[in-house]
């Protein structure tokens, strides 16, 4: 046990001097090192928890390389399953808490803006909002989905418009406006079953 702790500490120190490509080259073919380091190669994440045949299982935590907590709770066969908490990349602020199935938000959940205010509360299906209410940064209801259908407005964490439009069966359907990071309109048109028309 002590040997594994020393080995893990040594490689964590070593990794602090390497860029992302060098880190990947060092560990990508070494399953033993991945296991000792609790490294999940998907998106260059560290994982602390239980492994079964090199896949995360049971309760655990995901970290990005700089040490910030990204996700915590339950895993099955290397995927998020059960209840969990996901955090914004910087400062460890809560981004989402709720249910996961096979790595996707499925079931009841709550999503939060970066400042901690409630953004959406309801049900998800395969990472898509399905039933529930969305809120702006002032706590006003800005959209309501029922069985994956309804008119939706979404804002980024700074309160700027991301898009507005209609959903049907959890997919973009009907007229839609999409905005860039500065809140400027970059697309106005129609979608059918999640695909742009024209």
Task: Explain how this protein is built.
With 198 residues, the protein is mostly beta strands. The protein is built from 3 helices and 15 strands. The strands form 2 sheets. The chain has a 10-stranded antiparallel beta sheet with strand order 1-2-3-4-5-6-7-8-9-10. It has a 5-stranded antiparallel beta sheet with strand order 11-12-13-14-15, with no helix packed on it.
The N- and C-terminal alpha carbons lie at a distance of 61 Å
Structural class: mainly beta
List low-pLDDT spans.
Answer: 1-6, 40-44
Helix content bin: 10-25%
Strand percentage lies at over 45%
In short:
With 198 residues, the protein is mainly beta.
How are the SSEs placed, and which strands pair?
Blueprint: H1 2-15, H2 20-27, H3 31-37, E1 39-40, E2 45-52, E3 55-64, E4 69-76, E5 79-87, E6 94-101, E7 104-112, E8 118-125, E9 128-135, E10 141-145, E11 150-155, E12 161-168, E13 171-179, E14 185-192, E15 195-197
Antiparallel strand pairs: 1-2, 2-3, 3-4, 4-5, 5-6, 6-7, 7-8, 8-9, 9-10, 11-12, 12-13, 13-14, 14-15
């Amino acid at each position: 046990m002590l040997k594994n702790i020393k080995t893990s500490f040594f490689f964590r120190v070593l990794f602090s001097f390497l860029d992302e490509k060098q880190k990947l080259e060092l560990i990508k073919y070494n399953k033993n090192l991945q296991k000792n380091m609790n490294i999940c190669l998907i998106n260059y994440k560290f994982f602390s928890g239980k492994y079964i045949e090199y896949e995360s299982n049971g309760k655990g935590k995901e970290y990005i390389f700089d040490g910030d907590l990204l996700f915590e709770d339950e895993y099955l066969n290397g995927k998020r399953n059960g209840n969990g908490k996901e955090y914004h990349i910087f400062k460890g602020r809560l981004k989402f808490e709720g249910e996961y199935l096979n790595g996707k938000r499925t079931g009841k959940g709550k999503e939060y803006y970066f400042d901690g205010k409630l953004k959406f509360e309801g049900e998800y299906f395969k990472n898509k909002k399905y039933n529930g209410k969305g809120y702006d940064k002032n706590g006003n209801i800005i959209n309501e989905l029922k069985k994956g259908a309804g008119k939706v407005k979404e804002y980024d964490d700074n309160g700027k418009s991301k898009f507005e439009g209609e959903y049907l069966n959890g997919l973009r359907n009907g007229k839609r406006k999409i905005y860039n990071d500065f809140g400027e309109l970059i697309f106005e048109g129609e979608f059918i079953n999640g695909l742009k028309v024209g």
